[in-house]
Write a structure and sequence with these properties.
By secondary structure, the protein is mainly alpha-helical. The chain is about 80% helix and about 0% strand. The chain has a single domain (about 10-195, about 215-400), classed as MFS general substrate transporter like domains (Growth Hormone, Chain: A, Up-down Bundle). The protein is built from 17 helices and two strands. A two-stranded antiparallel ribbon has the order 1-2. The relative contact order is 0.17. The model is unreliable at about 190-205 and about 405-413 (pLDDT under 50).
């Protein structure tokens, strides 16, 4: 038997999940500008300090496999609300850390709990919107998560230059507690958040392993999962080290360096503002191809920038181009397995963030041995290749990836 939980719908519900996504994304990027200060305080190298990013990514990505079936079982919105509260624990521990080892452990805890927010929010959107309108709704949700990425780097640099790096984690803990309370209030406020009753498990609701294996067995699902893993590795394996590189190369403060890289997030927000028009004008293949072209020129500008202001413009363009491609991938991921959407989107997010963790780990090796410029060149060459390849593969997508299950929910207002 399966307990069916009806959940909130509507613009207010999307806004609250977007706020939760803001803090989750902030936590992901908040350590980027902290690396020089962490290396100095704990007497280690920048590459070693970067494990605070790597372990967060690994925990964030791998534990999403746990959160996916939990969301399918107990309700995606309800589970995301619980995970938001739980995220405060690791950040409180990070605030009190007295060694790099303890800080890394607390970052792992924060990543493990944070993995239950964004993928379940995307799966919830997939449950409550039709495929035709989903890319625009996903873009609305992404406004919060993208701003979180931008503000995470800026906030990390700001606290490092003022009150100290510990207070960045205190801010995150407070944000998680506040938004978690609002999400719980939304669940209580709407009748859809109440328990809907008992229903039989559909034939497709098999064990987690069988459902996951069915997703992996599908060729198009494998293409999506592989593409997003490589995309995450290349992009964030480069961006994680940009604040430190700007600080060292141009002599600007970590606050300003974080603000420059925040242009990436604002570029993503810029995309969400025009997403509907771009989708209508270019289609999915055009979005993927255009994103690759934009990222090619943007990383070239970042590599050759004679002034930090050029770097800021390049970061904005990187964000815009990246989300042209990534939003297309996300929308396709929500349709990989409509009857087990929590698991499917969790696998997608897991692939993305595990890719990021591998990218940051490899990026640390490149930075320590060759310098940051090589990361820019790698991203400049490989990201367009990935985008062009996925655009061509979209033409081979099976027709069943467009179909909705018969009981698909109404669209979100």
């Amino acid at each position: 038997m399966h307990v069916a939980h009806a959940e909130p719908t509507g613009a207010r519900s999307i806004l609250l999940l977007s706020l939760a996504g803001f803090f989750s994304s902030s936590a992901f990027r908040i350590c980027d500008p902290l690396l020089p200060q962490l290396a100095k305080e704990f007497g280690t190298s920048t590459g070693s300090a970067a494990y605070t990013i790597t372990v967060f990514s690994i925990a964030y990505g791998s534990l999403q496999i746990f959160w996916g079936p939990v969301g399918d079982r107990f309700g995606k919105y309800r589970t995301a609300a619980f995970a938001t509260f739980a995220c405060a624990v690791g950040n409180i521990g990070a605030f009190f850390s007295e060694s790099l080892t303890t800080l890394i452990l607390c970052r792992a805890i924060a990543g493990a709990t944070g993995g239950g927010i964004i993928p379940l929010a995307l799966a919830w959107i997939g449950d409550t919107t039709t495929y035709a309108e989903r890319q625009q709704v996903v873009a609305r949700f992404l406004t919060g998560t993208i701003l979180g990425i931008a503000c995470g780097q800026f906030i990390g640099g700001l606290f490092t230059d003022t009150l100290g790096w510990r207070w960045a984690f205190a801010m995150l803990a407070a944000g998680y507690l506040l938004v978690g309370a609002l999400l719980q209030q939304e669940l209580r406020r709407t009748a859809r958040g109440a328990r809907a009753g008992i229903a039989a498990v559909p034939a497709t609701q098999r064990s987690f392993l069988s459902r996951a294996m069915a997703i992996v067995a599908d060729r198009w699902s494998r293409i999506i999962l592989t593409t997003v893993a490589i995309e995450g590795a290349i992009l964030f394996g480069s961006l994680a080290f940009v604040p430190s590189a700007l600080h060292a190369h141009f002599g600007i403060s970590l606050t300003l360096a974080g603000g420059v890289v925040a242009g990436y997030g604002f570029g993503g927000v810029g995309y969400t503002l025009v997403a509907r028009r771009l989708v209508d004008a270019l289609g999915e293949r055009g979005l993927a191809t255009g994103g690759g072209i934009v990222m090619l020129f943007a990383f070239a500008a970042l590599w050759l920038a004679p002034h930090w202001m050029i770097s800021a413009a390049a970061c904005f363009a990187i964000g815009f181009g990246f989300y042209m491609l990534h939003n297309t991938l996300q929308t396709n991921a929500t349709q990989m397995a409509p009857t087990a959407r929590g698991i499917a989107v969790a696998m997608f997010a897991s692939a993305f963030f595990i890719g990021q963790s591998i990218g940051v780990a490899l990026g640390a090796i490149v930075v320590d041995r060759l310098g940051t410029d090589w990361l820019y060149v790698i991203a400049m060459v490989l990201l367009p290749v990935i985008a062009f390849a996925f655009a061509r593969l979209l033409a081979t997508r099976p027709p069943h990836h467009f179909r909705e299950p018969e009981d698909s929910a109404a669209s979100v207002d």
